[in-house]
Amino acid sequence: xxxxxxxVTRALTGCQDFVSAxxxxxxxxxxxxxxxxxxxxxxxxxxxxxxxxxxxxxxTGGRLYRLRPADGHRHYLMxxxxxxxxxxxxxxxxxxxxxxxxxxxxxAVEHTVELxxxxxxCLPRTxxxxxxxxxxxxxPPCHWDRAPDPRGRVRSCAR
Length: 159
Known about the structure:
Order of helices and strands: HHHEEEEHEEE
Largest sheet: 3 strands, mixed
Helix content: 25-40%
Oligomer: single chain
Radius of gyration: 17 Å
Shape: flat
Strand order of the largest sheet: 4-3-5
Distance between the termini: 26 Å
Number of helices: 4
Number of strands: 7
Strand content: 15-25%
Structural class: alpha+beta
Mean pLDDT: 80
């Protein structure tokens, strides 16, 4: 594993939600890593090929990355407003994909399941107050900083 790939992996470890290659690059540069954006993309491609990251698409079709947990591939429910993600039980999806492969004789079948919604923290409150981030006693999740873009956010991981 190269020095750069180790740096990318460490940076991914610091984010609890999905991040883009550009966001990851910005985090690395902010931490004084001498790394190029092309190198970040290359490291992410290698991690994806090795099964080290899960990948989803954002609303514009861009790829977002998250370290894959030690127990394997997961599917996630992602908030369309803040970007927070939660793993979901997807055993039925995995069984279905395996059954389709067996029934059709196909090998190396891959699938993509993307679930999006609006998390409880992003739903407007009827009393006009703000919702707290995270559950009591729980470390606050990595979140997306708000900014004046069409969707009201800048896609940058804040810790």
